[in-house]
Design a protein that fits this description.
- By secondary structure, the chain is α/β, with parallel strands linked by helices.
- The protein has eleven helices and 13 strands.
- Strands 3-2-1-4-5-6-11 form a seven-stranded parallel beta sheet, sandwiched between helices. A two-stranded parallel sheet has the order 7-10. Strands 8-13 form a two-stranded parallel ribbon.
- Helix 2 links the parallel strand 2 and strand 3.
- The two termini are about 35 Å apart.
- The mean pLDDT is about 95.
Length: about 350
């Protein structure tokens, strides 16, 4: 397969690109290498990918329509996985326009590029954040998601709506992937597991929001990648008799589908911290704080349709996953090392 991965120097994009290259596919990676977090980490990921002859890297910004059109016209990908986005719930409160540029304008340019250079399948990263204020758990792709609590979540819901429109108007098969709190080696330094590791090693206290009374459906990176790989050639089909009164809201009369990819096992925040302390062999000082704006109490993925359609369900425990992350972290930064 000729596969285009946007955000290839990012956390999920790097791991997915490496897996596909190891499987023998041809991968073109796009990234703008911005400084939202330490670009050196992105360059380290790229160094690994560039060791593969079947990998081509192109530095480009998705909000630059002319650049995107040129890349698509030249590379002519068969499959596209859009993982490029401005991530982070809290950052979206401080820098809202970064999310409009990357997550809305950038995705619009990808949709247009796929319309003008037809592809077999476009997969794109959505997020568990779209469930927003939902109270019913586990979160199902059949649930309504019209109550976001952050701009980041709103842009991800918008991506799903934009993809559906292009699936309907132009017949582009699209699959949205609602990822649940992804973690693991080469991860994002702005995520809690990464910053907690840095702070514990440095002897700094941890800020524990909502006094530790939160749960997250942490999903290990290898499980995320396995799910995406299995979905690449599972192309959504038209369901001409689709009826919203009886059919799943994650499907449509257009060639469109939404999946959750999560561990189906919400982990209490204090269990997560204890597992990290065990992996590091060091206890953390904790400062208990109130809930942050844009946060939610709990995430919990219903992955029944993922199991049904591709026979796969994420299963890595938080203890095993954090142990693997800590092994990588201490190897990358040194035993007492720190990340920017």
């Amino acid at each position: 397969m000729k596969i285009m991965i946007t955000g290839a120097a990012g956390f999920i994009g790097f791991h997915l690109s490496r897996r596909l290259l190891e499987m023998g596919h041809i991968v073109t990676g796009i990234d703008n290498l911005n400084d939202y977090y330490d670009p050196a980490l992105k360059l380290s990921r790229l160094e690994i990918l560039n060791a593969h002859d079947a990998f081509t890297f192109i530095k480009a910004d998705l909000k630059d329509k002319e650049a995107v059109d040129k890349v698509w016209a030249k590379q002519k990908p068969e499959y596209v996985v859009n993982l490029a986005a401005q991530a982070g719930v809290r950052y979206s409160i401080e820098n809202p326009y970064a999310y409009v540029d990357s997550n809305l304008i950038g995705f619009m340019n990808i949709l247009e590029a796929c319309r003008n250079n037809p592809v077999k399948h476009l997969l794109y990263a959505s997020s568990s954040s779209v469930y927003g204020g939902n109270k019913v758990a586990p979160f199902s792709t059949g649930h309504n998601v019209d109550h976001p609590v952050s701009l980041y979540a709103a842009t991800k819901k918008s991506n799903e709506l934009m993809a559906h429109t292009y699936s309907h108007l132009y017949g582009i098969p699209t699959t949205g992937l609602r990822f649940f709190t992804v973690y693991g080696p080469f991860g994002r330094p702005d995520m809690a597991y990464y910053s907690f590791t840095r702070d514990i090693l440095a002897g700094r206290p941890l800020k524990v929001f909502n006094h530790g009374k939160m749960e997250r459906d942490f999903t290990y990176i290898d499980d995320i990648v396995e799910g995406v790989v299995k979905l690449i050639d599972r192309i959504p089909v038209v369901k001409r008799d689709w009826d919203e009164s009886r059919d799943d809201l994650s499907t449509s009369f257009a060639p469109y589908k939404i999946y959750n990819i999560g561990n189906n096992d919400p982990v209490p925040l204090m269990r997560f911290i204890n597992a990290l302390e065990t992996a590091l062999g060091k206890e953390a000082e904790k400062v208990f704080m109130d809930m942050q704006p844009g946060d939610v109490m709990r995430t919990y993925a219903d992955v029944s349709d993922l199991e049904r359609d591709i026979g796969f369900k994420p299963s890595t425990s938080i203890e095993d996953g954090l142990r693997k992350f800590v092994d990588w972290y201490t190897g990358y930064y040194g035993e007492g090392g720190s990340a920017k």
